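Design a sequence for this backbone.
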């Protein structure tokens, strides 16, 4: 055992795609983290308990939880010099562009003192990332709106501290709304891990060369940014805003069916799920809770989202192609209702997915049979041929 977590290499097979962390049955719409159904985790636990579970394989006892939480909160501040990094970006930079830069820059502040061949040091790196990603995420937001950075508050919950760093200002008290805090924590849980998705595979690929975990996280963030992946929540909200009203839905449904039209229904479809994404179900219920708490009963975007979902789930085209709402379909409405700008949606996804990325990285690093990833290709280019001298070309 190395402190908190034991990664017993014995359970890992040499197959590179084997993992004990997350199980998905796309046809049945099942998502398990270490055997626990995602809906139970989202309702019965909190994000830090899920972090402990993904890292150790077991849910924490109350004593283990307190120790783990104390460890995470002890490292929530970033090196003060990192504040200068943000100032190097244009003020109107997309926060994901900033996150790619500052997350990778953690290598310059915390990697030199760590030997990733040492399991204890790997665990330290994991804690640094779980602790600091909310701080960096909130800093990327504050920088984009020209407000001062807010230091972490270790007396608050993980989600409460993030909301405080996002919305508090030095000159007045900011009280975290417990319903919003719970919704934020649930969004963190629902995005925590999802097996070998594109960004986690990017993290594993980068980590397989022995690159340090901070640089690998930057690779994961870069991959997540794409609209087909983590950027879908931002794209989904923009799509709902473009649709604008229920009567314009048929036009966009027709575009989604048109093979010659690149338009896709953002928030629908999934490479693995050919059934309802179990995360979307919880996200939809959370969306209703948040809108009720904020007395937003007739949110126009929710009306469009609910009608779009109803039509898509009954339309033969989408039914045949098994295109269901995914995790990104409702999250954007919740975040927008909380007051978070669309440009921060994928940053919050990256914050949430950090535990998934780092758990897979630790699992891979603990496997003595782990080798550098080196996919091969099917060559379809020109056969061998010889150079014509330049003066003859
Ligand atoms: C995430 O991998 C993960 O686990 C990712 C993720 C995670 O937690 O890490 O779950 C998070 O990335 C969720 C997905 C978010 N992306 C979006 O919502 C963007 C919109 N969705 C599409 O871009 C698409 O559904 C993908 C990219 C998610 C999946 O695309 P695939 O792999 O092509 O899906 P498919 O093979 O099941 O598609 C079947 C058919 C195809 O048409 P045909 O070639 O059979 O004619 O359905 C079509 C697709 O073109 N299709 C869509 C569609 N999604 C797929 N048509 C219209 N609208 C869509 N949204």
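Sequence:
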């Amino acid at each position: 055992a190395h402190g908190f977590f034991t990664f017993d290499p014995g359970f890992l097979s040499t197959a590179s795609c084997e993992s004990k962390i997350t199980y998905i049955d796309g046809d049945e719409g099942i998502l398990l983290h270490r055997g626990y159904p995602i809906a139970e985790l989202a309702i019965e636990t909190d994000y830090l308990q899920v972090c402990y579970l993904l890292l150790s394989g077991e849910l924490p006892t109350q004593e283990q939880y307190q120790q783990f939480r104390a460890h995470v909160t002890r490292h929530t501040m970033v090196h003060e010099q990192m504040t200068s990094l943000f100032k190097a970006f244009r003020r109107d930079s997309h926060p994901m562009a900033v996150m790619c830069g500052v997350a990778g820059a953690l290598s310059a502040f915390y990697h030199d003192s760590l030997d990733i061949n040492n399991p204890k040091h790997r665990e330290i790196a994991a804690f640094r990332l779980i602790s600091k990603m909310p701080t960096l995420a909130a800093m990327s937001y504050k920088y984009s709106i020209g407000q001062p950075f807010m230091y972490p508050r270790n007396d608050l919950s993980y989600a409460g501290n993030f909301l405080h760093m996002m919305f508090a200002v030095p000159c007045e008290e900011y009280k975290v709304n417990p319903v919003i805090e719970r919704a934020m924590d649930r969004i963190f849980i629902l995005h925590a891990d999802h097996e070998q998705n594109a960004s986690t595979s990017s993290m594993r690929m980068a980590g397989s060369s022995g690159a340090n975990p901070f640089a690998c996280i930057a690779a994961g963030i870069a991959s997540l940014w794409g609209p087909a992946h983590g950027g879908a929540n931002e794209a989904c909200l923009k799509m709902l805003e473009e649709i604008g009203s229920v009567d314009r839905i048929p036009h966009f449904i027709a575009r989604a069916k048109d093979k010659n039209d690149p338009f896709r229904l953002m928030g629908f479809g999934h490479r693995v799920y050919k059934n309802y994404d179990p995360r979307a179900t919880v996200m939809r219920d959370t969306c209703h809770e948040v809108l009720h708490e904020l007395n937003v009963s007739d949110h126009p975007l929710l009306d469009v989202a609910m009608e779009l979902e109803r039509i898509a789930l009954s339309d033969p085209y989408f039914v045949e192609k098994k295109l269901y709402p995914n995790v990104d379909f409702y999250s954007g409405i919740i975040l927008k209702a909380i007051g978070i700008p669309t440009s921060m949606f994928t940053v919050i996804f990256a914050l949430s997915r950090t535990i998934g990325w780092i758990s897979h990285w630790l699992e891979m690093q603990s496997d003595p049979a782990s080798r550098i990833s080196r996919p091969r290709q099917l060559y379809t280019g020109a056969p061998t041929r010889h150079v014509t001298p330049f003066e003859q070309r």
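Confidence is low (pLDDT under 50) at residues 10-16.
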